[in-house]
Amino acid sequence: MSDTRKYVYAFEEGNGSDKMLLGGKGANLCEMTQIGLNVPPGFVITTETCLTYLDNPDQGLPAAVMDQVRANMQSLEEKTGKSFGGSDDPLLVSVRSGSAMSMPGMMDTILNLGLNSNTLQGLISQPNNERFAYDAYRRLIQLFGKVALGISDEAFDEEFEAIKERVGVKEDVALSARDLREASDIFLDVVERETGKPFPSDPYEQLEIAIKAVFNSWMGKRAVDYRREFNITPDMANGTAVNICTMVFGNLGDDSATGVGFTRYPDTGENGMFGEYLTNAQGEDVVAGIRTPKPIDALADEMPGQYQELVELRNRLESHYKEVQDFEFTIERGRLYCLQTRNGKMNATALVRTSVEMLREGLIDKTQALLRIQPEMLEQLLFPQLDRSATASPMARGLPASPGAAVGHAVFDADRAEQEGRAGQKVILVREETKPEDIHGFFASQGILTSRGGKTSHAAVVARGMGKPCVAGAEGIHVDVQMRKAFVGDATISEGDLITIDGTTGDVYLGEVAMKEAEFSNELEILLGWADETARLKVMANADTPDDATKAAGFGAQGIGLCRTERMFNAVERLPIVVEMILAEDASSRQTALDKLLPIQRSDFKAMLKAMAGRPVTVRLLDPPIHEFLPSEHQLEEELEQLRHLRDTVLGMNILSDTVEFMYRTADTHPSIDKMADPQLVDEAIDKKAVMLKKVRALHEVNPMLGHRGVRLGITFPEIYSMQIRAVLEAAAECVKEGLEVFPEIMVPQVCTKQELVRVKSIVDSVQQAVEAHYGVEVNFKFGSMLEVVRACMRAESLADVAEFFSFGTNDLTQATFSFSREDAENKFLPMYNENGILQDNPFEVLDIKGAGKLMELAVGWGRSKRDNMKMGICGEHGGHPDSIRFCHQIGLTYVSCSGPRVPIARLAAAHAALSEGPGGTQSL
Ligand code: ADP
Ligand code: MG
Ligand code: MG
């Protein structure tokens, strides 16, 4: 039975779009040949052949493979007029690897194949060829020896260096024909010595061994590791092809050269040819760095005609591939050949610039311009980055918790950060871990470094929300707040020392490392403008302060999708009022505290409405359990004990020296203590703390996340929600009086039944009446509900009776869907679940489309069945991730809301989501 499978495709035959079968290099060699570019003749042995061979390597290549190879070699002989193994004008070939995914340097290529003592004479007999011929020969023996016979490079390099030394030259080019002849002889000996067999001289034997060696390199350790590291799965690339390509020589003298080029600058995106070349050299020399290559512009002087051809080649490549190309070329005695092309890898700056410029040049359309860039890549442009040319080595490493780099003086507590920040210093807040009461320190800092906690720790979440760099959980750092030092192995960071953190990589450096600022370029603006035109989803930002809102507007947010009012409560001058409100024994003293908070909240909301003038600002009423604003029980107990100790010693009038020291040591964090020499003041302080402790104990909850929070608070303490609602509506009324158009939205958290919404809505109605009467203007706003409780999703139809919009809070909804509490899950079992494939991803990072997503999809349908076109969005961290965004698009949400700096990423992702729908507009899930 004869094997009729097609294993081999001539460059004229292969389908340039079939990269799976022909590999990227082979497919492009076929395509370039077919569009008439000057590619040396050749053919491709398919990746399928590779897989067939690797199934059973001991059996060798299927017979039909070598038959087809022979037939194709004969046609190369016809095309070139040379003969393989011939002693006149021998045909030499390269045997090159190439899979569907580019894996630079992972697999092998052999050049000059077909040389032996006989064909060598054929080469030498050509005019002025002796040196070149021996050069090619010694290269073949070394490369073949290494790749096909497994001999180490050093075995050859040692001998070669010895020859150079003996002759007294530094560079290969300075060696004479005689020297290279000697090298070839010695190399032949090396092969025999290392393998016990002579170098194979039959060209077809060489060819077969080389093909098998390239196939085997697919399963070589280097290649296997690389695929694992970069998650290259068999559906992306399966097996390597072998490309057999007629050799052309860049090392035939000064009218020959070899080089690599980019059709545009891969770092800046500038529209100009970028590249390097070497005269009188063979391809691998440029990359190998044996000689220093020249910039491509020098070719214009050295070989003006060829340079012109190269420019034409560049133009044809771009106009054909419609993408920046990275190509290899060789000039043999004045004739230009193209040996490879592929899409160029570029940084984000270059991607954005080339998208905008190639569109303007008519090379690509808007869809292509948008789809060329993966949304996540924009991160490089939105945060300051460490200058990669700077060579510093990190002193410690933690988790990359919030991207971007920052430099500042280390400070060890939030108060100090605030003091220094106010004084105009750049600081990095260094803590073991952070708590909500550290928030003012975040505002004052350039970045945050913690030694404990994960990517979802308080520090990480808050820093991401603010767009500040954060390295979390750098466990090598031991922070000692008392000593105002941090210890890292043998090194010490003292307060005030300059440190640099890189939240993109997790690295921490002592001293200042050079940085590149974020570049929100004009081109990025243009590109994102197209994204907005294309997207159906609107992109809003989460912002808790007027400052965040202004920044979000700068990132192109179309509104604020989530303003967490409790973040506004945490500022140092406000927290005491909040505490006063919580400690209030009766409604009237609570009202006194609320009356103090009202103007503060009103002015915050007003500033945010102004920053977002013309766009919606969604204010979420108080959400967390109120004990979060109080110190912990443990902390209060400790403080009480210290105070009692102080009272005893002070009353006894025998102040021990360590007490004095204690008073001074704690003086700057507890400024009141050093005034407490008066026993009466100490007693008062003790009473206050005791009351607070009692309250904390009374408020204690077994499960705070499932406890007295959100709308439950609003219903039990209606005066709190009433104050917040009034602050929003008065802020809006004042804006309206100033002639501004504003769109406040009031959003209720943790809702699970319609009755809850009805109760809050009645407060809203009466406040609205009062405010409108007082200001004499009409206030337009929307009233809506968070959907973050499973029951709320199930009852979406009924909630839509009262709510005018929904916002999915996917952090809580994920917890509720899985019945996982986030911290426990992430610290205890989720990593193992992920490792064992029980769960593919961390659902708190990657939206669980199948579970939480299904609930969302159902709720969207039920809500809209009651209220046509009901506005619906998502807030929370999932809202900034491209995969979640695609899902939100597919289920028909109106908007996504994410942290300010992720807004540009989300805008592009929203456009991608719309484009992936296809022209028919069909939604597939
Ligand atoms: P890689 O994938 O590592 O770039 P290649 O197969 O492209 O490996 O080849 C390595 C080097 O040899 C490249 O510089 C290439 O241009 C050069 N080369 C490959 N085939 C030929 C050929 N037929 N003639 C001249 N140079 C070649
Ligand atoms: Mg190459
Ligand atoms: Mg929530």
From TrEMBL:
Its EC number is 2.7.9.1. SUPFAM superfamilies: Glutathione synthetase ATP-binding domain-like, Phosphoenolpyruvate/pyruvate domain, Phosphohistidine domain. Its cofactor is Mg(2+). It is an enzyme of class 2 (transferase). The keyword Membrane does not apply. The active site is at H458, C875. GO terms for molecular function: ATP binding; kinase activity; metal ion binding; pyruvate, phosphate dikinase activity. Substrate binds at R564, R620, E788, G809, T810, N811, D812. Residues 425-506 form the PEP-utilising enzyme mobile domain. It holds the Pfam family PEP-utilizers_C. It catalyses: pyruvate + phosphate + ATP = phosphoenolpyruvate + AMP + diphosphate + H(+). Mg(2+) binds at E788, D812. Keywords: ATP-binding, Kinase, Magnesium, Metal-binding, Nucleotide-binding, Pyruvate, Transferase. Residues 21-56, 61-295, 306-360 form the Pyruvate phosphate dikinase AMP/ATP-binding domain. Residues 527-913 form the PEP-utilising enzyme C-terminal domain. Belongs to the PEP-utilizing enzyme family. Catalyzes the reversible phosphorylation of pyruvate and phosphate. This is Pyruvate, phosphate dikinase. It comes from Solemya velesiana gill symbiont. The lineage of its organism: Bacteria, Pseudomonadati, Pseudomonadota, Gammaproteobacteria, sulfur-oxidizing symbionts.
